Amino acid sequence: MTDYKNLKLIASSSPHIRSDENTRSIMLDVIIALCPALVMSVYNFGSWNFRALTMTAVSVVSCVFWEWLYRVLLKKPQMIGDLSAVVTGMLLAFVCPVTIPYWMIVLGAFFSIVVVKQLYGGIGCNFLNPALAGRAILVASFAGPMTKWYYGVDIPVIGKMAADVTTSATPLAVMKDGAFTQLTQDVSVADMFLGRIGGSLGETSALMLLLGGLYLLARKVISWHTPVAFIGTVAVITLIAAPAGVNNVDYMLYNVLGGGLMLGAIFMATDYATSPVTKPGQLIFGIGCGLITCFIRRFGSYPEGVCYSILIMNCTTWLLDKYIRPVIYGAPKKEKKKEAAAK
Amino acid sequence: MAQAFFGGVHPNDMKAATNEKAIEQLAPPAEVVIPMSMHIGAPCKPVVAVGDTVKIGQRIGEPGGFVSAPIHASVSGKVKAVEPRTSSMGGTVMCVVIENDFQNTVSEDVKPVEDPDSLTPEQLTEIVKNAGIVGQGGATFPTHVKISSGLGKVDYVIINAAECEPYITGDHRTMLERPDQVIKGATLLAKCFGVDKVYIGVEANKKNAADVLNAKIAELQAPVVVEVLHTRYPQGAEKQLCQAISGRQVPSGKLPADAGCCIFNLNTTCAIYKAVYTGMPVVSKVVTVSGSGVIEPKNLECPIGTPISKLFDACGGLKDDTYKLIMGGPMMGMAQYSVDVPVGKGTGCMLAFAGKEEQYVEHPQCIRCGKCVGVCPIRLEPVFMYKYLMKGNWEAFRDQFHGMDCIECGACTYTCPARLPLTHAFRMGKQQVNNARMAAKARAEAEKAQAAKKEA
Question: What is the 3-state secondary structure (H, E, C) of chain A?
C-alpha cells in the first residue's frame, strides 16, 4: 500500500482547478486574430510589399524591448512573457502609415509602452489604449509623415520613397472634401471591403479584420457588446444623417468600411484595461465611441475620428465602472429601497 | 428545462471516471474516529467514556444547543479514546475513537416508525433531530432547524441533486441504485410541508438518473417532479438552485425560506427516509474517491469516522507524485494535510491530484478582462472587491461591493486568466468584516457595563 508519510501535500484555498485560459493565451489569440489583416496589408500595399511586415516587426521588437528595459531598470518582475507588449506593437504598427521611417515607430513604441503603460503600473493599469496613445503622440509630433498615404506604389523596405511618387488620399479624406460621388466612382464597395484602398498599415481590410473579430468572439476573448455598439452606432447615424444629395446607404457603407473603424471597434475599443468591465458599460462605451467618431468625421478638422473617440471614451471608463453596475442577486427591489431611505 | 441562474462556469466535469461504477461497501475499518462537530452550530458533548461498549446507531454525542445535531456510533465495539484529533477543517476537534469488534451489533434504539404515512410535521422534525441529520451537501446545517424554520412559509420544496462539482458521482449513483429512498424521502417532505409536489433538480448530464426517478415516481404515484437543469457550475448552490427552479431570488443576507423555498440535499433526503423507515440515524456516507492521484477511482459507502487513508487503500492507493488531497469537490473542497482525518457527515468526495501541479503565478496582475464579473452567480464585481481588499479597505468591500453576499463558489477564481487568488481574498475579507463586527459588539458591551457600573 501507499506510504502516505512520503507525500508532500499542498494545503491551498479552493478552488483547486483553473480554466486553461491565461493572460498569455489571450494575448496569443489576439496576435493570431491580427494575422489575416497583416497578410492582407502585405499583399495590398503594392502586391507583396514587405515593408508592412518589417514595420510591424520593428514595432513589436521595440515594444518588447522598452517593456523589458523598463522592468529591468526599475527592478520589477519581468512580464514580457505575457505577450501583451507584442499585441501593443502589432496594433501600433497597424495604426501608422506603412511609409513612416522606422525610428519614428520606435519612438512611438517608447511612448506607448513606457509612458502610457508602464508608468501607470503595467498591464491592466493603464487608462489609455497604449497603441492609440502612441499613434496620437506621433500624429501630434510628425503631422506630415503620419498623414501621407500611398496605395498601389512600390514602397522600398529600406530607404526613402522616390520623390516623384504621388500620395493618394484615403476614402474618408475624399469624403471630407465633399467629393463623395467622385469617391463612389473611383473606389467600389468591394475595394473598401477587401482593403484595396489607402490608409494605415493594418486598418484597410474590413474583411480580414472581421475574420479576426469572429475568431476572438469564438474564443470568447472579446464579447460582441463593444464592437456591435460601436459599429452599429456609426452605421445608424450615417444612415439617417447623410449629407443632402448623397445616397444614404452608400454613405453608411463607406463610413463603416472606411478608416480605422473595424480595427478600432474590434481590437482597440475591446482592450480590457481601458474599457468597462460590465456588459451594459461596454454597450455605452461602444455607443459613445460611435457618436464621437461620427462627430469628428462630420464636423471635426480630421477626416478620421476613431482614434480620438476611443481615447476620449477611455477617459470615461472609470465613470462607467463606477455607475453602471450589475444589480446583485437578491438585491432589495427599488420601491423597498426608497421606503428604507424614507425611514 | 428550468430557468437559468446568473453567470456560472463550465469546468470539465470529470465524472466519467466513476459515474458507471456502482456504490461499493467499504470493508469495515478497524477503528473509526468520530468528530463531535460535524455540523454548523454548537459541538456535541461526548456521552460515552473510554472502555464503554457501543453499538451501531447508539448516541455517543449529545447536541450542545438547538442549532446542533446528535452523533451516533457508526460501528459496534469499544471506545478506545475520547480526545482531540486532527480535524478536516484545520486544527483539532474532540473525537470519540471506537475500536471495531466487527460484530455489527445494532443498537436497540434503532427501530422503524410504525406508521410513516401518519407522521405530523412535528413528529418528523423530532425524528430528523434524533437521527442527527444535517445538510449532507457539505454545508452541514442541522436539518431539523431548517424544517422547523421553514414550516408554514415554504411553498417550494426542492431536492438538490444537481451535483454540479466536477468528479463527484455519489448522488448520481444513489439516484440510479436507490430511487425508492429518494422518492419516499421526498414524499415525506411533501407531506411535512403540505405542498402538492416536491421538485428534484438534476443537471442535464445525468439524464439516465432523471429517467430512473421518473419511472419510480410513476410507480409510486409520488407527489414529486424531476426538473432537468442546465449543466453549469454552481447549479447546486442553494441560492442558484432556488432561482433556477422557482424563479425567485433569495433576499440578500436572508435564507431560502424567506423566498418561500426549502432546499434539501439528495443525501439528506435519503437520510430522512432511513431514519423513518429503518430507524437508522446518520452512520454512513457515500463518498466518491477520484482524481488523477487515485489508482482506481470508486464510489464507496463507508461508516462515518473512517479515516480517509482507508478510502484510498480501498481504491488501490495513491500515486507517488500526489500533491494535493481534497475533501469535497475541486471547486469548494478543503485541501487536507493529513490522511488521518475522518469522513464526516458532509463528506461526499475525496480527491487526490497527482502529476503536474496547478498553474501558479508568482506575480498575478489583473488585466481587467471582466470575466469574473460575467461568471459571478451573485452578480458581484470580484475585480473591484479584490482591488479594494488588497488596499486593506474592507469597508468598501462590505458596503459598496456587497462582499458579504459572496458564496465562495470559486467561479471567478476558476475563470481568472491572470490567476488572481480571488476567492481566497474574499474569504479573508469576510473574516476581517466579521472580526470588526465582533470587536464593535464587544466594545459596545464593555461600554454598557462600564456605564452601568458608574450609575451604581
Answer: CCCHHHCCCCCCCCCCCCCCCCHHHHHHHHHHHHHHHHHHHHHHCCCCCCHHHHHHHHHHHHHHHHHHHHHHHCCCCCCHHHCHHHHHHHHHHHCCCCCCCHHHHHHHHHHHHHHHHHHHCCCCCCCCCHHHHHHHHHHHHCHHHHCCCCCCCCCCCCCCCCCCCCCCCCHHHHHHCCCHHHHHHHCCHHHHHHCCCCCCCCCCCHHHHHHHHHHHHHCCCCCCHHHHHHHHHHHHHHHHCCCCCCCHHHHHHHHHHCCCHHHHHHHHCCCCCCCCCCHHHHHHHHHHHHHHHHHHHHHCCCCCCHHHHHHHHHCCHHHHHHHCCCCCCCCCCHHHHHHHHHC
Where residue B5 falls (left for φ over 0; alpha for ψ -120 to 50; beta otherwise) is beta
- The domain B116-277 having CATH identifier 3.40.50.150: the answer here is no
Chain A residues with beta carbon closer than 8 angstroms to that of B427 = 13
Q: Does B378 touch chain A (CB under 8 A)?
A: yes
Number of C-beta neighbours around residue B313 at 10 A: 18
Q: Inter-chain contact B239–A330, Cβ cutoff 8 Å?
A: yes
The mean pLDDT of A310-334, rounded to a whole number, is 91
CA distance A125 to B22: 52
Q: Which residues of B touch A278 (CB under 8 A)?
A: 370, 373, 381
Taking the CA of residue B116 and the nearest CA in chain A, the distance in Å comes to: 37
Question: Which amino acid is it at B148?
Answer: S
The single residue listed with the C-alpha cell 464579473 is B373
User: Which strand ranges, in their side-by-side order, compose the sheet holding B77-86?
Assistant: B31-35, B92-100, B77-86, B53-54
Cβ separation B357–A10 shorter than 8 A: yes
Question: Do B213 and B179 meet the contact criterion of CB atoms below 8 Å apart?
Answer: yes
Distances, alpha carbon B66 to alpha carbons A310, B44, B70, B142, in Å: 60, 11, 11, 9
Of chain B, the percentage scoring pLDDT greater than 70 comes to 99
Chain B contacts of A7, Cβ < 8 Å? 318, 322-323, 325, 339
Return d(Cα B364, Cα B224) in angstroms, integer: 48
User: Grid coordinates in use for A187?
Assistant: 473606389
State how far Cα B2 lies from the chain centre: 23
- pLDDT tens for B377-416 read 999 999 999 999 999 999 999 999 999 999 999 999 999 9
Q: What are phi and psi of A74, to 5 degrees?
A: -95, 10
Instruction: Compute the distance between CA of residue B239 and CA of residue B380 in angstroms, rounded to an integer.
Output: 14
Cβ-based neighbours of B453, under 8 Å, separated by 6 or more: none
Identify all chain B residues contacting A285, using CB atoms and an 8 Å cutoff.
Answer: none
- Whether residue A4 and residue B318 make contact (CB cut-off 8 A), yes or no, is yes
Task: Give helix B143-150 / helix B266-277 axis angle, nearest 10°.
Answer: 90
pLDDT at A138 over 60: yes
CB contact under 8 A, B336 and A9: yes
- pLDDT at residue B375 greater than cutoff 90: yes
Cβ contacts of A277 on chain B, cutoff 8 Å: 368-370, 373, 381, 383
Name the segment(s) of chain B with CATH classification 3.40.50.11540.
116-277
Residue of A nearest to B425 (CA): A13
Residue extents of the structural domains in chain A: 23-146, 150-323
pLDDT in tens, A140-189: 999 988 888 877 666 777 766 666 666 777 888 888 888 888 888 888 99
Which residue of A lies nearest to B14 if distances are taken between CA atoms?
Answer: A17
Q: Which residues, 6 or more positions from A164, have their beta carbon under 8 angstroms from its beta carbon?
A: none
